[in-house]
Write a structure and sequence with these properties.
Blueprint (H helix, E strand, L loop, with lengths): L4 H13 L3 E2 L2 H5 L1 H4 L7 E2 L1 E5 L3 H12 L4 E5 L11 H11 L30 H11 L4 H14 L15 H9 L3 E5 L13 H17 L4 E6 L7 H10 L2 E7 L11 E3 L4 H4 L2 H12 L1
Parallel strand pairs: 1-2, 3-4, 4-5, 5-6, 6-7, 7-8
The protein binds zinc ion (ZN).
Length: 289
């Protein structure tokens, strides 16, 4: 799911044409205390996960159009070369053949497709790998991350190449927030799906301590949480509402003043559903139904 820089620019232009004023999510949430009236129609741009391409492609577009945005960061991935487990699994499966008897792959084997016939021993196609990732979601995120680490230890040739960095770095975060254009919200420490976490200590670390990380980074932190995958649990929800002033979900739609700030809706825009004015309008229109 990607948005091209051109599509993002079109989204910004089109939002303005519809009469929506781009403002910080934080400003919208603060309207009661600030005494400043909100625009009749406001739009807040948000980006999840803290991908490096937010700096490379989105930031120049935001700057050119003077459009504020909030990026929800996975704090323990900042300044590392790590990435999310689905990307690691995808690269593993589409570039390597999984050895038949190596115990390091025992966790993965039940989720692999059965391929028979000549050429059965080959890396997977993108769609096949996508299906494996969907099946792996029945496991806890930390289990998969640990298992991947063990694979890299026993089979260093399977380890991701150290060339690319997919997540934002501290200098990039500083630059984007310097003129107040970008603010940072919390998207957990490791992007663990909260409904899969059995351990309360980890749940607290992922939700509460993530805000400490953001504040320690000394950047423009805003106490807004964003649920990874949109997955919510009762205990997690309680910790979120006692730590943050609002939370974004993956639910689609508008937010009105006075709505539940812990159940903020959004429009999930990507090139597949909003590359043209017509498709963007259709996507937004569907969100109104
Ligand atoms: Zn995410």
């Amino acid at each position: 799911m990607v948005t091209s820089p051109q599509a993002l620019e079109n989204h910004i232009r089109f939002a303005r044409k519809l009469g929506a004023e781009p403002i910080h999510l934080n400003e919208w949430l603060n309207h009661d205390g600030q005494g400043r009236p909100l625009p009749r129609l406001a739009v807040a741009f948000t980006f999840d996960d803290g991908w490096q391409d937010n700096y490379q492609y989105a930031y120049p577009a935001l700057k050119a159009h003077n459009t504020p945005a909030t990026i929800f960061l996975v704090t323990r991935l900042i300044d590392t070369k790590k990435t999310f487990w689905p990307e690691q699994v995808l690269s593993l499966l589409t570039t390597h053949c999984i050895p038949e008897n190596a115990p390091a792959f025992d966790w993965l084997r039940p989720h692999l497709p059965t391929i028979t016939g000549p050429g059965a021993n080959r890396p997977l196609l993108l769609l096949e790998a996508d299906e494996v990732i969907a099946r792996l979601k029945s496991l806890e995120d930390a289990t998969i991350i640990d298992a991947l680490e063990k694979v890299y230890e026993s089979h260093p040739e399977f380890a991701p190449t150290p060339s690319g960095r997919s997540i934002l770095s501290s200098p990039e975060l500083t630059e984007m927030s310097r003129d107040g254009l970008v603010m940072y919200g919390a998207h957990t420490r490791h992007h663990y799906r909260l409904n899969r976490l059995k351990d309360e200590k980890t749940l607290k670390e992922e939700i509460v301590d993530c805000l400490d990380d953001l504040r320690h980074m000394g950047k423009s932190a805003t106490p807004v949480f964003c649920y990874p995958n949109g997955d919510i649990t009762g205990k997690g929800e309680h910790l979120v509402s006692s730590t943050y002033k609002a939370a974004c979900t993956t639910k689609t739609g508008w937010n009105h003043t006075g709505c539940n700030p812990y159940d903020l809706h959004r429009f999930n825009l990507h090139d597949g559903n909003s590359h043209s004015k017509r498709t963007l309008l259709a996507t937004i229109g569907r969100g109104l139904l």
